[in-house]
Specification:
This is D-alanine--D-alanine ligase. With 375 residues, the chain is an alpha+beta fold. Helices cover 29% and strands 23% of the residues. The protein contains eleven helices and 18 strands. α1 links the parallel β1 and β2. The longest helix is centred in the C-terminal third of the chain and has 17 residues.
Amino acid sequence: MDAETPHESTSPPRRPRVAVVFGGRSGEHSISCLSAGSVIAALDPAAYDVVPVGIGRDGRWVLEDGDPARLALGPGGELPEVRGSVEVALTPGRGLVVSEPREVPPVLGEVDVVIPVMHGPWGQDGTLQGLLEMAGVRYVGAGVLASAVGTDKHFMKQLFVAAGLPVLPWVTVRGDRWDRDPELCRAQVAALGLPVFVKPARAGSSMGITRVDTPDQLDAAIAEARRHDPKIVVEAAAEGAREIEIGVLGGLDGSPPEVSVPAEILVGDEHAFYDFEAKYLEESFAVPADVDDDLRAEVGVLAVRAFEALDVEGLARVDFFVMPDGRVLVNEVETMPGFTALSMFPRMWAATGLDYSALLDRLVRLALTRDTGLR
């Protein structure tokens, strides 16, 4: 008689555990919660073990309610917040560990992939990515350097220029320089001509941005931007330009990055620019954009060049100005674009043939193939 064959396990393989991390200390806390709610709703529970982890405005990591409706806009337009009370920590080799007073900390288990649905400083800017690298946990999206540079409009523009990409003229105003010599700063801004846009260098979601049409408006605009960031970028206005955006996805198995169909921002006369209300509370864009084949090809090529100039991985949204004379200028690269139901990035990919759930699956698969550390 043959030797007894060991019984083969009939238990199904463990689903990859995906921690969706959101919230954070930045002014974009609530926007991050909105994005996370959409992501959690779209992740296939049959394919992934989803663990929602919120970062409070005080920096605490907590287990959050997995109900996506809790992270949606309220009936009166109220923005969601991280409200969990059970604290968790991410530790190398053990994964997520629950921290309860006077209790032995239970271990939730290893995390296979983190989706850092974070916007702005203390999350999107390389800080969270560095923590995940140190913990040896794979994650979706750009690495430490690309995340940091992609959050800082000043350094982003410098890298674009170094790569030969066309950008709008700008000057950087630091808070301490403004305090020491405001006249010099005003003169540098005046050299750009008017109008200009005054922006916090490391904020997003159109927060703290002011259009300045006359010299007497500059000081108030600087003060508003400094409420969000001591470092300010003042940029020449792209008068009469079309605002075109396109999505980029990192290629699988070493293949080149892919681009989506482009979209166009449509800002009504009631908005001076693409502000928070237009971005999140209104239908303010056309997907796909009404562009000819030559322009579609040009923004696609420039998008990949910008993606690679910043050494981005995974995903990005690349924004352009198409000037009245036909010139195409790179505005910025968003390394973790919004993922709400109204967000441009998932809508562009849906129009390209990759729906929301398939897009997230693609991003998780990309992250699973990428090791942490130098690469």
